[in-house]
Amino acid sequence: MSEEIAAPQPAAPAKRVQGGVATADVVLSAHAGRNAELFPRILALHVPPGAIIADVTYGQGVFWQQVPPGRYRLLPSDLATGTDCRALPHADASIDALVLDPPYMEGLLREKAETRGGLGSHVGLRAYYAAGGETPSAPGAGRWHQAVLDLYLAAAAEARRVLRDHGILIVKCQDEVSANRQELTHVQIVTGLAALGFYARDLFVLLRANRPGVARLKRQVHARKNHSYFLVFQKVPDGQEVARYRTRVLVPGAAPAGDPADRSG
Ligand SMILES: C[S@@+](CC[C@H](N)C(=O)[O-])C[C@H]1O[C@@H](n2cnc3c(N)ncnc32)[C@H](O)[C@@H]1O
What we know:
Number of domains: 1
Bound molecules: S-adenosylmethionine
Number of strands: 9
CATH architecture: 3-Layer(aba) Sandwich
CATH superfamily: Vaccinia Virus protein VP39
Largest sheet: 7 strands, mixed
Strand order of the largest sheet: 1-8-9-5-4-2-3
Structural class: alpha/beta
Mean pLDDT: 84
CATH class: Alpha Beta
Radius of gyration: 24 Å
Shape: globular
Organism: Siccirubricoccus deserti
Low-confidence stretches: 118-126, 254-265
Helix content: 10-25%
Distance between the termini: 64 Å
Protein name: Site-specific DNA-methyltransferase
Order of helices and strands: EHEEEHHEEEHEE
């Protein structure tokens, strides 16, 4: 009686196990609603708990209304309380994240109160966006829309000084039509900040829930804006190229968000 000897079988290849959990509960790039709803989600994704965050245009603190108290170490300041975001009292490389939300409409930055935007029915706008006062322009600064950009860029340069390497800069902005020109402020900021050494890590669109009112309209020329942006930048260390920069490091600590193998987002 012959005995059959089973030939050794090759070992089955190890099954690849996918990391992570299947979920639809992810932070999305567009949100219909209010600043106070979206802002905490942006922080949750890009700023680790315990981080030192300077909000340098704190205003009425609307952004922070739904942020759990004590999650971050918040340093609020504003021109209205005596601190210009272009000359901060913080030491070099001492801040983990910085929030910048200056007036985004050139009309609110005009030096003369009589011609400054936000009069009449827009008086609430003036109070909210420009603290009811004027933002002194730097020597040689531009006018009209250029004044808006100058403020963002000068504040970003100061942010770069106070942020640690890999620190996060969250910029709120809105595009505007100024002097009959379409000004894509968010594009101008991304370009300008790349030149200052910031990598554009993320972009969020905030859609107004209600329709903007129109007082008088002869002929519509441009789409009326009902969206704004939160741009999330990261400070690229000196000596590294913005165009080649990639990191999962977030400060404080080096805890990368998410699974290193995940290339989905
Ligand atoms: C849109 S509001 C900020 C609203 C704020 N994010 C909130 O959640 O309430 C703009 C703020 O920028 C402030 N501001 C204007 N120019 C400034 C400057 N050069 N430095 C610091 N703050 C400035 C105004 O006083 C105003 O409070």
